[in-house]
Amino acid sequence: MILIKSKREIDYIRESCLITAEVLQLLKYNVKPGITTLELDKIAEDYILSNNSRPAFKGYSQAGSFAFPGSICSSINDEVVHGIPGNRILMDGDLLSIDVGVEKDGYYGDAALSVGVGSISDDKQKLMDITEKSLYLGIAQAHAGYRLGDISNAIQSFVEENGYSVVRDLCGHGVGKHLHEDPQIPNYGKKNSGALLKDGMTLAIEPMINLGSYKVNVADDGWTVLTTDGQPSAHFEHTIAIINGTPEILTKCG
Questions:
Q1: Domain 7-249, architecture per CATH
Q2: Per-position DSSP letters for 79-96, written without gaps between them
Q3: Domain residues of the chain, as ranges?
């Protein structure tokens, strides 16, 4: 069931989303060769807690997995999503994807971005650029009266036209009163298909795009998703609300 939010509920979600956005910008500023993903996780957790909120990912579990130990997901190069923060040191040329979730007053925000560490290759930079652009093309289709498939198709069409592949085993989702809600939002699909979009929907749209094949598998840690061919992947995400028929991005600063 897709939950339709009231204006009051969207205001609560907006507050959680603003903290989420601020965390991502803080982390982006601190990404540099020599820092560990665990150090970035500590920066994020301290900031979230200082805003009377809670890291939504920490302790989260899903079927068959242990509770996620980090406040952020930190995924490097061929790690698509759900990378566990640890003592791995970021190296010049790495592509780092950071995913953050925040819960405050019972409402959630969720967002992600990818960033180059030091000087990165042209291939990695273009992959990030295409992934981020596809996110905004998808958001542009999130109007009341459109359908979920319009979002999915806009992302897939742009990505594949540029020679990249859309991860099919993972998708975006509803978010707000829970970290993960209906509907699922694939990053591929047909126009004019899927659920009808309505005012009051709050959605986390998140293209995960690979340089090589779309195929992925899960590492032995039970969480980290990797490309099967070892090629890099990028990930961008915003939480949006459909208000007065149009999409508003909630997870951005300013």
A1: Alpha-Beta Complex (3.90)
A2: EEE-PPP-SPBP-TT-EE
A3: 7-249
* DSSP state for residue 55 in the 8-state scheme: E
The tens-digit pLDDT sequence of the chain (254 residues) is: 999 999 999 999 999 999 999 999 999 999 999 999 999 999 999 999 999 999 999 999 977 678 999 999 999 999 999 999 999 999 999 999 999 999 999 999 999 999 999 999 999 999 999 999 999 999 999 999 999 999 999 999 999 999 999 999 999 999 999 999 999 999 999 999 999 999 999 999 999 999 999 999 999 999 999 999 999 999 999 999 999 999 999 999 86
DSSP state of 80: E
Rounded Cα gap, residues 182 and 190, in angstroms: 19
Question: What residues have CB less than 8 Å from 56, skipping those under 6 apart?
Answer: 101, 102, 103, 108, 110, 179
Global pTM reads 0.97
